[in-house]
Amino acid sequence: MDTFNFSPAPDSTMILLVRHGVTPTTGQVLPGRAPGLHLSEKGEEQAQLVAQRLRGLELKALYSSPMERTRETAAPAALLFNLDPLIDSGLVECDFGEWTGAQLKELSALPEWKSVQETPSTFRFPGGESFVEMQKRMVSALRRIAARHPGEVVACFSHADPIKCAVAELSGTELDAFQKIQIDPASISLAEFHRDGRTEILLRNSNAGALRRQ
Known about the structure:
By secondary structure, the chain is α/β, with parallel strands linked by helices. The protein has a single domain, classed as Phosphoglycerate mutase-like (Rossmann fold, 3-Layer(aba) Sandwich). It has a 6-stranded mixed sheet, with helices on both faces. Strands 1-8 form a two-stranded parallel ribbon. Helix 1 packs parallel to helix 2 and helix 5 crosses helix 6. Its EC number is 3.1.3.3.
């Protein structure tokens, strides 16, 4: 498989955005922040693959959402690099409120689902978070992390929607188009944070191949 080589500016922070591996309910249920959801056997294999894909990097820090599925995905990389995962609530899954735990098939039949897909900037989950709030939270967390690690490479393990929202913001894409961004389980995206505040998405939704800094 091809290796993705990147050459950042000397003082830029490179953040790897890693979605957690698959769980028994991936693609069927909106789990949100409900506790107790762990990786499936396939998800555990994906977590090992993520670590192997990163082994050629000098990873300086590893951050994770507090959810079990993200911490379990981060664990093999943490072991490989001898790093203690840093739990950051800014990376947590969206608060889906009353929709937490609902079947996606049932949600997709609701009239509100059209807003979720077509005009997410106007939508708030009943009793939960809005997409605007989630995007602001996630991007703020990434900028805070980037400021701590100038010139370094770090990894952030999170969830599909927060990563999609972040990729949209950091690449200059409108929030209402973020649903067109695909972020697969255990995929890796790469964002460069420049010291002057500029950001770039260098890699999106990568599912195979090693990553190396030149």
